[in-house]
Design brief:
mainly beta; 24 strands; about 280 residues; four-stranded antiparallel β-sheet; single chain
């Protein structure tokens, strides 16, 4: 079986400058800046602005990731500065609960059972919360710099990428609910397999996509983590202080947030940017 995967276009949305994370809910794209209590709302197809949502009672934040749950019609935001999860129920109700081991490396996603999965960067653990904020389970991961995590196609199993800078192993793994590695793809730092994998996504057909950031390519794997192909990345390069974040929706739109230098009148400055890519995969 041959799988072909290519980008049709890459649209940079100027109105989404300084955006560090985004999520899609009910055909609307929600995007949040790193230190703002406001969420920009766009049409997820045309990307035309539909307005701004201000989260009441939220001051200075350090938002590092966002995800959506269509079942409960809510957004979740990981706030590293206040070490908490913010739950925003559409259209306006919000609440938050503390998660002490959230930091700037934390990543969040929603599982098939509509729970919130939190990759806690400080403790190197996965924490599963109900939509009410109650902690359901904790999974201790093997030592290593974990960069991304989300539920796999089999409930109770999770895709985890790890390996950054001086870490010896750079891999994508399938782990079970006890944190044991069931299958892995990758090897030692600098190998031809993976080098600084910064993100992972899985589509509705079970194909796994790994953002192999240091090798500047996208690696496509089967659901058994067997290699299919690698593609030269069209993702923009990010400054080393912020690794790219990659997410994929049901339409196989890929959302990539990154940090770049921008030249201005007063010199260069850092700016977050969200890019949206449209992709298609075909199976022969």
């Amino acid at each position: 079986m041959n799988v072909h995967y290519k980008y049709l276009f890459a649209d940079q949305i100027l109105s989404l400058q300084q955006v560090v994370a985004a999520a899609v809910l009910d055909n609307e794209l929600y995007a949040i800046a790193k230190s703002s209590p406001e969420i920009l709302v766009c049409d997820a197809v045309s990307f035309r602005s539909r307005g701004v949502i201000t989260i009441p009672g939220i001051g200075q934040t350090n938002c590092v990731d966002m995800t959506a749950c269509s079942f409960y019609r809510c957004l979740y935001i990981a706030d590293a500065q206040n070490t908490s999860i913010i739950r925003l129920e559409m259209p306006s109700k919000h609440e938050k609960w503390p998660v002490d081991d959230i930091n700037t490396d934390s990543v969040i996603s929603v599982t098939s059972s509509h729970d919130l999965l939190v990759l806690c960067g400080k403790s190197n653990k996965l924490k599963l919360f109900g939509t009410d904020g109650v902690l359901r389970s904790t999974i201790a991961l093997e030592p290593g710099h974990v960069t991304c995590a989300l539920e796999f196609t089999t409930p109770g199993q999770y895709l985890v990428t790890h390996g950054r800078d001086s870490d010896p192993l750079h891999r994508v793994c399938i782990v079970n609910s006890e944190g044991r590695i069931l299958r892995a793809y990758g090897g030692f730092k600098g190998s031809y397999m993976l080098h600084n994998p910064s993100g992972v996504a899985v589509d509705n057909d079970g194909f796994v996509y790994v953002d192999d950031e240091a090798n500047d390519r996208l690696v496509v794997l089967t659901s058994a983590l067997e290699f299919i192909q690698s593609l030269p990345s069209v993702f923009p390069k990010s400054l080393s202080s912020f690794h790219r974040r990659m997410k994929m929706d049901d339409l196989k739109h890929v959302y990539v947030s990154y940090l770049k230098y921008v030249s201005g009148i007063r010199g260069n400055y850092k700016q977050y940017q969200l890019n949206v890519f449209n992709s298609v995969s075909e199976t022969d």
